[in-house]
Design a protein that fits this description.
Length: 122
């Protein structure tokens, strides 16, 4: 019933930027924690960023270049990705959970979107 829907992926050149969106349907966003994850071919899914009400966290390798934010009135979480490099090419997923923390572990999340492709060319 609670369904995140990702959008905003695409093809960009190295050094470019993208803003991903995660819209939550089926519930208000207010008390959900939202995580962003990515999965490259042949790789495990890994946490990129998460946001609760009042706290954010980032994977060390993206800290300083990615910014996560939320707009509860629009029921949407955003991931601004700057200075993109080819190694971040992957399918990006958002996920939601009701929890009093901000985990980067995929196992913590309950409701998952279908993903959006991000490709960075060199």
């Amino acid at each position: 019933q609670v369904q995140p829907v990702e959008s905003g992926g695409g093809l960009v050149q190295s050094g470019g930027s993208l803003r991903l969106s995660c819209a939550l349907s089926g519930s208000t966003l207010d008390y959900y924690v939202i995580g962003w994850f990515r999965q490259a071919p042949g790789q495990e899914r890994e946490g990129v960023s998460c946001i609760s009400n009042g706290y954010t966290d980032y994977k060390d390798s993206v800290n300083g270049r990615f910014i996560i934010s939320r707009d509860n009135a629009k029921n949407t979480v955003y991931l601004q990705m700057n200075d993109l490099k080819p190694e971040v090419t992957a399918i990006y997923y958002c996920a939601a959970v009701l929890i009093d923390s901000c985990p980067l572990s995929p196992d913590a999340y309950r409701n998952w979107g279908q993903g959006t492709q991000v490709t960075v060319s060199s």
